[in-house]
Design a protein that fits this description.
The chain has 260 residues and is an alpha/beta fold. 40% of the residues lie in helices and 14% in strands. The chain has one domain: Rossmann fold, CATH 3.40.50. It is built from 12 helices and 7 strands. The protein has a 7-stranded mixed sheet, sandwiched between helices. Helix 8 links the parallel strand 6 and strand 7. Helix 1 packs across helix 12 and helix 6 runs parallel beside helix 7.
Length: 260
């Protein structure tokens, strides 16, 4: 007898601070999940649309995007676009998504729009990765209510932990009232330069704040990693032998182990 399909594992990649490698993390974890033969959907929920272009999709040519989904004009299934990578699809975005927050502010179910959109897919995908905007906006709250896990990229620099308290407080409130199963899958140190004492100190500080939650693998500062998005491909395609590629492959393996 065939087993019942497992519900999708939904992971929101978020940090309200910009420039921490959030989109790079979302793209490359989604890619390596797909590479491991897991059907994976990457939802680009950041109005900048960098996850969309980072997977080689032309934002100008899109007929429907996540803005249409959130405003109830299209179903999520209607905007999903296959990528050139096996098992990996993307729900694309372009800057008009930023305008939806004003329209959503007074709307019914304004906090749960993404959750209902994802539920409409059933068990089509094993993993759904949500790339969130770098803010604690209505869009981010939607992602946190839709997700089972949060993955938190943190840059290994002096102000790394600044502002994280607010995000953790928001997670706590959401857990209490709207999504009791929300859990932190892990904290991922990014842009780590092992040659500097600052990186070492920040890693120690992150580990102190999040005992047992910091990934064993960390993401190094890596030129190839920075170059890959401009070519519209994940690092595993651009330079699979680079330090960045090896790091994201290791992190993805840890993610799979942690969500069990």
């Amino acid at each position: 007898m065939q087993g019942t399909p497992k519900p999708s594992t939904i992971i929101a990649v978020t940090n309200q601070k910009g420039g921490v490698g959030k989109t790079t993390t979302a793209i490359n974890i989604a890619y390596y999940l797909a590479k491991s033969d897991h059907s994976t959907l990457l939802i680009d929920f950041d109005p900048q649309g960098n996850a969309t272009s980072g997977l080689g999709i032309d934002k100008q040519a899109l007929e429907a995007t996540m803005a249409d989904v959130i405003l109830g004009k299209k179903s999520l299934a209607e905007v999903i676009t296959p990528t050139e990578f096996k098992h990996l699809s993307v729900a694309p975005t372009e800057p008009s998504l930023a305008n939806t927050e004003v329209e959503m502010a007074q709307a019914e179910h304004r906090f749960s729009r993404l959750k209902y959109a994802i539920q409409s897919l059933g068990e089509r995908y094993e993993y759904i990765i949500i790339d969130c905007p770098p803010s604690l906006s209505l869009l981010t709250v939607n992602a946190l209510i839709a997700a089972r896990y949060v993955l938190l990229p943190v840059q290994a620099e002096f102000y790394a932990l600044e502002g994280l308290g607010q995000l953790l407080e928001t997670m706590k409130l959401i857990r209490k009232s709207l999504n009791p199963t929300l859990d932190l899958v892990g904290v991922l140190p990014t842009m780590v330069d092992s040659r500097t004492s600052l990186s070492t100190q920040v890693l120690a500080e992150i580990t102190k704040h999040f005992p047992a939650k910091v990934f064993t693998a960390t993401i190094p500062r890596n030129v190839r990693l920075a170059e890959a998005p401009s070519h519209g491909v994940p690092i595993g395609v651009y330079d699979k032998f680079s330090k960045g590629a090896r790091a994201y492959k290791a992190v993805t393996k840890e993610v799979i182990e942690r969500v069990g």
